[in-house]
Amino acid sequence: MRAMGRLARLSRRGFAVSLAGALLGATAFITAGPAVAQGRAARAHSSGSSYNFNAPTSAATVGNDLFVTNGGNNSVTEVSASTGGFVAGISARRYRFQHPSAIVSVGADLFVANAAGNSVTEIRAIDLKHLRTIHRPKYHFSDPIVLAPFGQNLFVLNGTGSVTEIATGSGALIGTASGPAFGFHSPTGLAVANGLVFVADSANNTVTVINAQTRALVEILSGPSYGFSTPIGVAFDGADVWVTNQGTDSVTEISATTLQAVKVLVDTTNLPSVGPITFGDGYVFTLSPPGPSPMVSQIQISPSPPTVEWMMCNTNGPYLFNNPQAAVVNGTNLWIVNEGGNSLTEMDTDSGALIRTVSG
Known about the structure:
Blueprint: H1 4-12, E1 44-47, E2 56-62, E3 65-70, E4 75-80, E5 86-90, E6 100-106, E7 109-114, E8 119-124, E9 129-134, E10 144-150, E11 153-158, E12 162-167, E13 173-178, E14 187-193, E15 196-201, E16 206-211, E17 217-221, E18 231-236, E19 240-245, E20 250-255, E21 261-266, E22 277-280, E23 283-288, E24 295-300, E25 307-313, E26 324-330, E27 333-338, E28 343-348, E29 354-359
Parallel strand pairs: 1-29
Antiparallel strand pairs: 2-3, 3-4, 4-5, 6-7, 7-8, 8-9, 10-11, 11-12, 12-13, 14-15, 15-16, 16-17, 18-19, 19-20, 20-21, 22-23, 23-24, 24-25, 26-27, 27-28, 28-29
């Protein structure tokens, strides 16, 4: 979920980022990788150049595999979510990866946002077949940084200030949402909930709500009750929307039905400069602060009110957290994408216990 423009913006707020790398050769690399210890109780570290991690930015799961975008070398790495072992890598020129910033799965396919290429690449997950790269001017892609599916469609957040909707089955343009009425200045996060699109705007301290069917403006949320302060990430737990506030070490819970603020959870100890956020296995997980000494926190959302149940940082063990950019839940495990360390950290969603780290 990290685009060139967004990387620059977050860098100015303290995120350490890397924009190194150029397009790789015209041939995809697909090879077998090393096996590592299995099981939730296992504590193992796997490393090797075969993973080809280089400034990883985001991750998505399809079945029992994890797909990681590498913004530094324009590639995608496939990792077994059960063993942590290398499965495959792809960097062929035909995929047109250019600083891939976000990845999401829709059914059996993967969609990759290319921040520098102003495009979206679609891949069939089972055999890594390139299906299409969507890049025509009519889509108005401009620094695409976040992807979110909605039924058979896909919403693309453009860091320069617009939202594009495309059909996942054909790649056809459905429509765009742009213009002064939406209040976009520096959008950073997006989630779809209850037929609405929620877009966090870090510069305006607002969340713009758009009708997912018509792309019409519903409301721009702001004011003291929401507590927005440099909002960065957005996640949906099935009932409520959660927004991280990097400026005030807090997370805002919003009803996806009434659009009213439910709770502003402030925790300067466990949510410092909080940024990326995700939901899975019944919990909300946040990453903070940026840089080489971050932490991962679990927010218990039920019973209400929400509370931070645990936080894990590098002093708790060899988690190897380093400028984490994204998190994804696979079953009962939580995977953290460490851009600064070129690594992945796998944790138990309930306890936060380290399962393994993968790097190389």
